[in-house]
Amino acid sequence: MNLDIVTAPTLGVPHGFFGHTGGLSAGAVAGLNCGFGAKDDPEMVRANRRLAADALIAGAPLASVHQVHSATCVVATEPWPIEERPHADALVTDRPGLLLGIVTADCAPVLLADTEAGVVGAAHAGWRGAIGGVTDAAIAAMLKLGAKIEQITAAVGPCIGRASYEVDYAFPDPFLAEDPDNARFFLEGPADKPHFDLEAYVAARVAAAGVRQVWAAGLDTYALPDRFYSYRRATHENAPTYGRQISMIGLAPKTR
């Protein structure tokens, strides 16, 4: 089954930002829906997750969290049962052969790796988590596992683009209160309302934490319906639900 996998040239470990091509789900979430909150058959979601994981490391276990738009990061040593997943929006590991996964549908997926230390991380960065410091939390957790900031590389995957992300007039306020220079991430749109560049903000936030190599996919989930699910697009189309694409990263299993 052909899967749409976006990869970054800088990470150096098994990883992928998956689109919705391929997969077993049907209806409004047809394709590779990997989100349990999408009103999909849970068995289809599990099967889709297995397809994606096997495309990176055959048979690898997948650890994921119950995402709540927080800045909380947890350390994964093995998968949690679906019903027992911690409420968090980032996870890190130093366990070879374990994949980390986060799901998105316009929010920015961020994958991080220190190949020398053998530590990887994944973060779900919506605007709340991004300004709250979810990527900072992921980087801090990686450092506690032995990563070094000068060795970490990062990749920001497909997310809603600035051209598609119109916000209300008060939306920029907390960003400008954090740093007036954040005005550069907002541009007036055709309806005279601000548009937010989530990808650029997240990339800048990761760089400000000391990560020297930050790659960005430059793919707008809203504007590419043939490739990606989009919460905002589904809302504008009055769709009954919306799918979630998955992004994964892991360390290759050790060979005997």
Low-confidence stretches: none
Sheet bearing the most strands, described?
A: 6 strands, mixed
List the domain count as a whole number.
1
Rg, Å, rounded: 17 Å
List SSEs in N-to-C order.
EEHEEEEEEHHEHEEHEHE
- The CATH architecture category equals 4-Layer Sandwich
CATH fourth-tier homologous superfamily? CNF1/YfiH-like putative cysteine hydrolases
CATH top level class name: Alpha Beta
Query: How far is the N terminus from the C terminus?
Result: 30 Å
Strand proportion = 15-25%
Looking at the structure, the CATH topology is: CNF1/YfiH-like putative cysteine hydrolases
Biggest sheet, spatial arrangement of strands: 4-5-8-7-9-12
Overall, the morphology is globular
DSSP strand tally = 13
Describe the structure.
By secondary structure, this protein is of the alpha+beta class. It has a single domain (5-161, 197-250), classed as CNF1/YfiH-like putative cysteine hydrolases (4-Layer Sandwich). The protein is 21% helix and 22% strand. The chain has helices at 42-56, 127-132, 134-144, 173-178, 198-208, 231-236, and strands spanning 5-6, 15-18, 62-64, 73-75, 90-93, 99-104, 108-114, 119-125, 153-156, 186-188, 194-196, 213-216, 245-250. A six-stranded mixed beta sheet has the order 4-5-8-7-9-12. A five-stranded mixed beta sheet has the order 1-2-13-6-3. A hairpin with a 4-residue loop joins β7 and β8 (119-125). The mean pLDDT is 97.
What secondary-structure arrangement, pairings included, does this model have?
Blueprint: E1 5-6, E2 15-18, H1 42-56, E3 62-64, E4 73-75, E5 90-93, E6 99-104, E7 108-114, E8 119-125, H2 127-132, H3 134-144, E9 153-156, H4 173-178, E10 186-188, E11 194-196, H5 198-208, E12 213-216, H6 231-236, E13 245-250
Parallel strand pairs: 3-6, 4-5, 9-12
Antiparallel strand pairs: 1-2, 2-13, 5-8, 6-13, 7-8, 7-9, 10-11
